């Protein structure tokens, strides 16, 4: 049986500087791929299984197709596609995705589509099964009639896992990454699922492989993690919480290696940025190289027995990958903290009895020039903003402003991400957003969620 893998779209617009190393790691979820294979039917009416991309999340028993693609040679005359959902829900009772690619694929492969020749269809298909192929059978948007989404019940909105007892939480990186620690802080005793990219963590939740994702959005020294701001907009997940993690970096190397032997230090770009001054103070004016995550850097040094390379990572990563700590607490500021958001398929119900924060994103037709008017809706109601971030408006990146005599100016267009200090259950927030909506051409509430109020000390 031949097997063909199709990539899940990827992110052609990725603006993040890609790390130089692609660390090999069988344990991580690497991409969202589904197997494509001919159905071994012995008769002449060849059947083909299609790869399904972007199975949109909804309760496991109801599945909708966002996009289906296929590459088919025979049979040439295809007029009908029959969509078949397997009886297995995306979440397995074994509780947790297996570690191999095969396990990942079988977890993903919740759907199979069968294309049959016209002749075979006329024999077997019922009207309800038949769905007309669109655009010369290269893509289609379908919701099988017998698989329409079920209405949400109150239990769907509950923050508890919808299966078994262990909450499965996707994070970017490998074990020992700060994101894994953040997942554990957000959801103690969770089953943390490593993913090799932020986008994979988003998709793991959308595909019911994970129940939550915990992803970094900003660091007190390095600033915003722009990639996740962009992904928040491109995916339909909701922010249901935040967690702030003190980040305590160590310089790690193979046992016996001294600082003088080093000519390279590798880590996540944020970690390199957070330790820049300290590395210089330590006399380490050596090459810095960015990799996918801090613990992945430690693993890379250990796996390749690199005696000239150090990694910046956590003490736990040193322990996991058998490295020694050459220097401890090398972040440029002792109160180095990274803020992570917790993401889920459903929003939580906002409350007013505990401190809540709300995150929104909006765009304005006249761009930045009237931003102050939008923000005054919050000022007028005494609602404090805790964060504001602007990102390029990719659907409309440039606005031309012309004056015949002077020429044409190009203004860049932005999306504005704002966090404010109020719950969506608070009437002040509702009124502020009603006003903001009047000004804006686009507005989305990313989530209303409890603030992380846990006591924190830099040395934690
Ligand atoms: O590389 C890791 O360990 C991560 O969890 C990622 C990350 C980040 O993206 O900012 C998280 C916290 C630290 O700020 C450094 C890196």
From TrEMBL:
Q: Which reaction does it catalyse?
A: L-arogenate + H(+) = L-phenylalanine + CO2 + H2O
Q: Give the top-level enzyme category.
A: lyase
Q: Can you say what this protein is called?
A: Arogenate dehydratase
| Compositional bias segments (type: Basic and acidic residues) | 15-30
* Organism, as annotated: Tagetes erecta
The record's GO molecular-function terms, alphabetically, read: arogenate dehydratase activity; prephenate dehydratase activity
Region entry Disordered: which residue ranges? 1-43
EC number(s) from the headed UniProt entry: 4.2.1.91
Does this entry carry the keyword Cell membrane? no
One GO BP annotation is:
L-phenylalanine biosynthetic process
Q: Which SUPFAM superfamilies match?
A: ACT-like, Periplasmic binding protein-like II
Residues in Prephenate dehydratase domain copies: 168-345
Give the ACT domain ranges.
359-450
Q: In which pathway does it act?
A: Amino-acid biosynthesis; L-phenylalanine biosynthesis; L-phenylalanine from L-arogenate: step 1/1
Question: InterPro entries, alphabetically?
Answer: ACT-like_dom_sf, ACT_dom, Preph_deHydtase, Preph_deHydtase_CS
Q: Which GO terms describe its cellular component?
A: chloroplast stroma
| Function noted in UniProt | Converts the prephenate produced from the shikimate-chorismate pathway into phenylalanine.
**Entry keywords, A to Z:** Amino-acid biosynthesis, Aromatic amino acid biosynthesis, Chloroplast, Lyase, Phenylalanine biosynthesis, Plastid, Transit peptide
Superkingdom of origin: Eukaryota
Per the record, the major location class is plastid
**Where does the record place it?**
Plastid, Chloroplast stroma
């Amino acid at each position: 049986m031949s097997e063909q893998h199709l990539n899940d779209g990827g992110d052609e617009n990725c603006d993040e500087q890609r790390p130089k190393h692609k660390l090999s790691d069988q344990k991580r979820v690497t991409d969202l791929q589904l197997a494509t294979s001919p159905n071994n039917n012995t008769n002449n009416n060849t059947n083909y299984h299609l790869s399904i991309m972007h199975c949109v999340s909804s309760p496991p028993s109801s599945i909708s197709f966002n996009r289906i693609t296929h590459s088919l040679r025979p049979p040439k005359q295809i007029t009908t596609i029959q969509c078949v959902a397997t009886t297995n829900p995306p979440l397995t009772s074994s509780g947790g995705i297996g570690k191999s690619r095969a396990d990942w694929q079988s977890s993903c492969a919740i759907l199979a589509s069968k294309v049959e020749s016209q002749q075979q269809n006329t024999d077997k298909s019922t009207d309800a099964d038949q769905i007309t192929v669109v655009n010369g059978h290269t893509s289609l948007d379908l919701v099988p009639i017998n698989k329409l989404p079920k209405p949400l019940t109150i239990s769907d909105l509950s923050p508890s896992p919808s299966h078994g007892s262990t909450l499965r939480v996707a994070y970017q990186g490998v074990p020992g990454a700060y994101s894994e620690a953040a997942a554990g802080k957000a959801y103690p005793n969770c089953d943390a699922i490593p993913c090799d990219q932020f986008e994979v963590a988003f998709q793991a939740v959308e595909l019911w492989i994970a129940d939550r994702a915990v992803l970094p959005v900003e660091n007190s020294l390095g600033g915003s993690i722009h990639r996740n701001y962009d992904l928040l907009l491109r995916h339909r997940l909701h922010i249901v919480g935040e967690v702030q993690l003190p980040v305590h970096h160590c310089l790690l190397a193979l046992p016996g290696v001294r600082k003088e032997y080093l000519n390279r230090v590798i880590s996540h770009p944020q970690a390199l940025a957070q330790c820049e001054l300290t590395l210089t103070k330590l006399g380490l004016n050596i090459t810095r190289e960015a990799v996918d995550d801090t613990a992945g850097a430690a693993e890379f040094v250990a796996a390749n027995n690199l005696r000239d390379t150090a990694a910046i990572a956590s003490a736990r990563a040193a322990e996991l990958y058998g490295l020694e700590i050459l220097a401890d607490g090398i972040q440029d500021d002792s109160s180095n903290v990274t803020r992570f958001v917790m993401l889920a398929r459903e929003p939580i119900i906002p409350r007013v009895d505990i401190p809540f924060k709300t995150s929104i994103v909006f765009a304005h037709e006249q761009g930045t020039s009237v931003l102050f008017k939008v923000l005054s809706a919050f000022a007028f109601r005494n609602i404090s903003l805790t964060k504001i971030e602007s990102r390029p408006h990719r659907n409309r990146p440039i606005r031309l402003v012309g004056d015949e005599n002077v020429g044409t100016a190009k203004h860049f267009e932005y999306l504005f991400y704002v966090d404010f200090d109020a719950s969506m259950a608070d009437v002040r927030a509702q009124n502020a957003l009603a006003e903001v909506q009047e000004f804006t051409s686009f507005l989305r509430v990313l989530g209303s969620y409890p603030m992380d109020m846990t006591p924190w000390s830099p040395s934690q």
